[in-house]
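Re: that chain you flagged

S.,

Sorry for the slow reply, it's been a week of failed gels. I finally had a moment to sit down with the sequence you sent. For the record, here it is as I used it:
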Amino acid sequence: MMQYNYSDIRNPEYKPVVVKDNILQRRAPSVVTCEDEFTPISKEEFIDTVSPGDGGYKLVYAINGQIPGPDIVVYEDQVISVSVRNQLRIEALSIHWHGMIQRATPWMDGASMISQCPILPGQTFQYRFLASPSGTHWYHGHIGTMRSDGIAGALIVLPRIRPRIHMLIIVAFDGHAIEPFKADSVVIQPAERVPIIHPDRTHAVLNYYGEDDEREPRIMPRPCCQSSPCVAVNRVYGPKVSHGASIQLKCKPTLLEGGFQCCIYICYGKCLETMTMFPRGPQINGRRFVKPTSPLQTYPGVDVITPCGTCESNECDCTHIIKFGLGNIIEIVIFSFGDIRVSHPVHIHGHHFHVLKTGYPPYNPVTGNATGRNPDIRCLDEFCTEATWADPSWNSGHIPGINLENPPVKDTVSVPANGYVIIRLKADNPGFWLLHCHFANHHLKGMALVIQEGEVEDMAPIPPNFPTCSDFQFSAVQWQIRVRSQRTRLASRGIIPDFKSGLALHSELQNDDPCRLNPWMCKMKVY
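Prediction finished late last night. Pasting the structure tokens below so you have them in one place:
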């Protein structure tokens, strides 16, 4: 929820609205003390000036009092330094710099319990990394639902050489230039970015103040017909449905050949026909991700993970890690089979990858509904947690329709429901990188895995005094040693406790009457 200041509509000021003393109050820092001051909101203010972000009132997080957070605009290859101070009361947080490759700084990626410990209330964590690559990126919280609850903002990395502005509309995807073109619509999944350049600079403010919620919109899309099909970009359904045409994203040619570690098949989603078989929710290859107890990028060893090797069935909770040999070209086939027909936005940290092909399921050309799974994938077990190409000749890399000439480069790709995508990347960025669905509820429920790129000795050492965190266990023997040691230390200074230590009491109780110690066991009256 936010307070909208109408005094300057071109430069609006957002002030957070919070619940305090069981009423809604505006929160703003005092210019004198810098402490938060709270002002109750009147009924009139609530109706006229409190503006929700998504059509419903909710409590949200703010960065420096702003929703979304402040824009960060830098030039490519500049060093970005951001100090994040957590002033929340009870919630921990971390910030992921979405789109930044983090070469040589994998511990600055911001993925909680993968690259760093969460930032606890009252703590400050300083991120420092190189702004690369150029393009339209963003930053967001990477714990729980903080991303969708306000912890997000724009991260714009400008190229050193100003690009020529094209007359056409769409010029880039996920920060990478593509061949520019016009289109009627663009499908954007969570985490994807599409810059649109217009030759004439315009300014617009989206304001629904005073509008009738029941009125039909004035602006309608143009009708699509067979003689003049509508052109859609990045569509997550079939390319030839309802008089529609898809644009094949293209970028500059690049080297994609090399030593393959091929192929890795990732079943994304439910991995089966019926949800009843996997009642616990989203998974990858039958594995629901369990976070390590210490960030992997601090190199704590193998004891901090829940190994997947101990799984005895197709459904398993574990710290799912796949390992890439450094310098290899990795081809990954990501498919989504199941009754829950949703396209998943797959994001990979630490990399931008080439999208070589998207395979859609068969469709009814009249209704536009999918009629089954894409037949190119053959499942190797009942739950399709392992798979291969249905045509064995494809295993050698000769895949029809694959684009090796000018495939688009992205960091997030939409996997069609009951379809697949083929992506390729070079394992040249040593570190532990998260691969996950960018739907927050899917990610939280376990639709994630970690890519280990290279050996630990190939990865950048953590900076001095980098914060660590882990489980803690204290055996009875260790406890006794420390208690006795402290008792001896105090006695040497003439300090004798006026109460019996746990050890002394334990010694006395060993020989005492058990009925006196536990009267309820002997049916005795306590009082």
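What I noticed first: The helical segments are 43-49, 440-444, 476-492, 502-510, 514-517.

Talk soon,
D.
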